[in-house]
Specification:
This protein has about 400 residues and is α+β, with helices and mostly antiparallel strands. It has three domains: about 90 residues, ATP-grasp fold, A domain (Dna Ligase, domain 1, 2-Layer Sandwich), CATH 3.30.1490; about 130 residues, ATP-grasp fold, B domain (D-amino Acid Aminotransferase, Chain A, domain 1); about 150 residues, Rossmann fold (3-Layer(aba) Sandwich). About 35% of the residues lie in helices and about 25% in strands. The protein contains 13 helices and 19 strands. The strands form five sheets. Strands 8, 9, 10, 11, 12 and 13 form a six-stranded antiparallel β-sheet that branches. Strands 1-7-2-4 form a four-stranded antiparallel β-sheet, covered by helices on one side. Strands 15-17-18-19 form a four-stranded parallel β-sheet, with helices on both faces. The protein is elongated, with a radius of gyration of 25 Å. Keywords: ATP-binding, Ligase, Magnesium, Metal-binding, Nucleotide-binding, Tricarboxylic acid cycle.
Length: about 400
């Protein structure tokens, strides 16, 4: 789950992470009201969307104009820029050409920026530990830094028993070239950031840029947070921050049925149980010359209602020209899945080729149910056979 910058800063501030003062606004008048509470004379007007690169982005109605983050020097300019941003579509590297509509903005006080750094906490799968990642190249995308100057990226794994210790922070601070009271400020900053990361069950906290001010303060000028969905049951404050307008409607609908769904750009819809099997299914579709239209894991506890919901979500995508169902019947028997597939195909009035591969408990009975249904369902003997058949059927219908 993702949240907006202003929400991330609100959460981080509760853990003692220093952030500039600011407030969210949904109209030009609200933007002026927020600006009146700030010291000025410099203000920053920031579009709030779930995507990076806002400052370098451009609005569809003004592609040659200013980006989604603007520095202004009066309250009148705050209102003018708020009016220019709200309700418009911002296109960045991360949104793609479609862009995202700006429905709220963040008004923040200006800062005396002396240096811009990069700092993040994330889970390193190689070490299975929370890891500090830092760089002197603040304000840049970390992927670019990793590709062009990887030696400028500092990393420090954290032992989960001890947690983040002062010596971890000092090591990073020295590597970033901090000095004097900046080091002490950084140690406090990183400790608070780590406490927020652990306390909020985050999967990523990224501060880019982390700034050093003229008087030696360390502030989070920007903040991005993502969270472990499996821990949201104990993070009610985070759940309340969810902005459904920023999410794909199909993915929102899928979450209501406990389905793991991600839309892709292909034409073969996939319905699979198990994330690993789903990945293998997408790979073999590509191997046979087509592209998957989605990742969809119905989970080990799939039932009739969930399978019907899955079919409806897949078919909402106009690009889908065929569906491959790949189920390994372990916890859920193959005959139960077959009955659900037949019911779903009848209810949604299936109009594209459907290939089903079943394996596991009661597989023969499951195949009988599919064969006796009277529906145009093609059975597959194995995964390769299923992929080949669905790709061929789509090509023949083209």
């Amino acid at each position: 789950m993702n949240i907006h910058e202003y929400q991330a800063k609100t959460l981080l501030a509760k853990y003692g992470v220093p952030v500039p003062r600011g407030g969210v606004a949904y109209s030009p008048d609200e933007a002026r009201e927020v600006a009146n509470t700030l010291p000025g004379p410099v203000y920053v007007v920031k579009s709030q969307i779930h995507a990076g690169g806002r400052g370098a982005g451009r609005f569809k109605n003004d592609p040659d104009g200013k980006g989604g983050v603007r520095v202004v020097k009066s309250i009148d300019e705050v209102g003018e820029n708020a009016k220019a941003m709200l309700g418009q579509t911002l296109v960045t590297k991360q949104t793609g050409a479609v862009g995202k509509d700006v429905k709220r903005i963040y008004i923040e006080e200006g800062a005396d920026i002396q240096r811009e750094l990069y700092l993040a906490l994330l889970v390193d799968r190689a070490t299975s530990r929370v890891t500090i990642m830092a760089s002197t190249e603040g304000g840049m995308e970390i992927e670019e830094v990793a590709a062009e100057t990887p030696e400028k990226i500092l990393q420090q794994a954290i032992d989960p028993v001890s947690g983040a210790m002062p010596f971890h922070a000092r090591k990073i601070a020295f590597g970033l070239g901090l000095e004097g009271k900046q080091i002490g400020a950084f140690v406090k900053f990183l400790n608070s950031l780590y406490q927020a990361y652990v306390g909020l069950d985050a999967s990523l906290v990224e501060v880019n840029p982390l700034i050093v001010t003229g008087d030696g303060q360390v502030l989070a000028l920007d903040a991005k947070m993502t969270f472990d969905d499996n821990a949201l049951f104990r993070q009610s404050e985070v759940v309340d921050m969810r902005d459904l307008d920023e999410e794909d409607p199909a993915e929102v609908e899928a979450s209501k049925h406990e389905l793991n769904y991600i839309k892709l750009d292909g034409n073969i819809g996939c319905m699979v149980n198990g994330a690993g099997l789903a990945m293998a299914t997408m790979d073999i579709i590509k191997l046979y010359g087509s592209e998957p239209a989605n990742f969809l894991d119905v989970g080990g506890g799939a039932n009739k209602e969930r399978v019907i919901a899955a079919f409806k979500i897949i078919l909402q995508d106009a690009a889908v020209e065929g569906i491959l169902v790949n189920i390994f019947g372990g916890i859920v028997r193959c005959d139960v899945i077959a009955e659900a597939v037949v019911a779903a195909a009848q209810e949604v009035e299936l109009h594209v080729p459907l290939v089903v591969r079943l394996e596991g408990t009661n597989v023969e009975r499951g195949k009988e149910i599919l064969q006796d249904s009277g529906l145009k369902i093609t059975a597959a003997d194995n995964l390769a056979d299923g992929a080949e058949k669905v790709v061929k059927a789509v090509q023949e219908n083209a």
